[in-house]
Amino acid sequence: MEPKIKKVVLAYSGGLDTSVILRWLQNTYQCEVVTFTADLGQGEELEPARAKAEQFGIKDIFIEDLRETFVKDFVFPMFRANALYEGQYLLGTSIARPLIAQRQIEIAEMVGADAVAHGATGKGNDQVRFELAYYALNPNIRVIAPWREWDLTSRTRLIEYAEENQIPITKDKRGEAPFSVDANLLHSSSEGKILEDPAVAPDEIVYQRTISPEAAPDKATEITIDFQHGDAVGLNGEALSPATILTRLNEYGRANGIGRLDLVENRFVGMKSRGVYETPGGTILLAAHRGIESITLDREAGHLKDSLMPRYAELLYNGFWFSPERRMLQALIDTSQASVTGRVNLKLYKGNVIVTGRESPHSLYNTRMVTFEDDAGAYNQQDAAGFIKLNALRLRLGASIGRRGGSL
Fold first, then answer.
1. Between the CA of residue 202 and those of 165, 179, 258, 282, 376, what are the distances in Å?
2. Strand ranges (DSSP E) for 22-117?
3. Which residues are catalytic?
4. CA–CA separation, 378 vs 346, rounded Å?
5. How far is it, in rounded angstroms, from Cα 58 to Cα 407?
6. d(CA 19, CA 232)
7. What are the residue boundaries of the structural domains of the chain, listed by start?
8. Less Cβ crowding at N or C end of the chain, within 10 Å?
9. Angle of helix 242-255 versus helix 280-296 axis, rounded to 10
């Protein structure tokens, strides 16, 4: 039998679910609860979470602005890889979980807690992401996942429990929410309820971060992004912090209807899920990063990086941020970014991100080599004949066998 839990650090938003979890932990485990609320740029006022935690008698309340850390140490490394899960999803929810988990473990060590708790359900990916991170950072930590333990299996039961335990319920929480939303500085995701049928187009009310492309201006918006070693460091010639750059790119993306995605994806736990994602600034950043890489990365280095990207993205999606294989891939990716420095010009127009120019002091693009005019001896076109014949050798051998009655 495991020893009694004395203190637990709860990832706490202040909403109905985590408020019920807070009281449930106190009632079920008879332990001290420490709350941790992270500001990752979700756009909500977080101080009310402090007041609610105080109503529960919580002594240790942590509310922290982690936006710069989130973008600098998690979002930017991911964008160096151009990571897309299943070719489309920019991993906005996935990349937030390791930071929350990391800080929970750090707080647990600070306050002497022997357990951590989260509010992820037993059907989704987040339970996996949180818990893989917890165990990677502290193999001896106890993990409490209330949605896998309690009997509050419906919204009605959740509200009944809240009423029984004097937990304040806002008026809008008494009705069924039309869909579930998760948000941070990189994206917002909407799932469930009215979005569960993948054959039905999402209503415009689903979109939180962008206007529709049809409603976007009829004139393109032109911007520039400066990169240094693969990370964005400036916007329109102005040096800015990572979180500030992403915030401003979000504003540009919102105004131009950029970054909407309606996706049916494969969850790590085995089921398919339909989600509506909005990643306005991230969509712009990805196009710009690929633009600067196009002139600064060696061909084979770029192709190798692209071949590894799906594996890297899958690791992030499945929750293996702190795994040795992700760290190994990150080291390779970061090495590739040594010369990815320069400026990219873009046009933003009705949902589209168009790269219109790119320049770098490390550019591998050589005008003398590619010009249709006289290249002054920079390239001997006769060399191409031998190159082609060598590459055609196996094709010619195969064709000759075919003429002798062989089959392919």
1. 36, 11, 16, 21, 58
2. 32-39, 61-65, 115-117
3. 17, 97, 126, 180
4. 31
5. 76
6. 38
7. 7-176, 181-297+339-359
8. N
9. 110
DSSP character at residue 71: I
Which CATH superfamily includes the segment(s) 7-176?
Answer: HUPs (3.40.50.620)
Rounded Cα gap, residues 49 and 286, in angstroms = 34
For tokens 């299996």, name the residue. 153
The one-letter amino acid at 246? L
3-class DSSP state of 10: strand
Amino acid letter, 305: K
DSSP string for 385-406: HHHHHHHHHHHHHHHHHHHTT-
Count the helix, strand and coil residues of the chain and give each as a percent rounded to the nearest 5: 45, 20, 35
pLDDT means per 10 residues in the chain (408 residues)? 91 93 96 97 90 94 98 98 98 98 98 97 93 98 96 87 87 69 96 95 96 98 98 98 98 98 95 97 98 98 98 98 98 98 98 98 88 76 93 93 59
What is the value of pTM for the model shown? 0.94
Please check whether the domain covering 181-297+339-359 is classified as CATH 2.60.40.1120.
no
Q: Which of 357, 361, 355 is closest to 342 using CA atoms?
A: 361
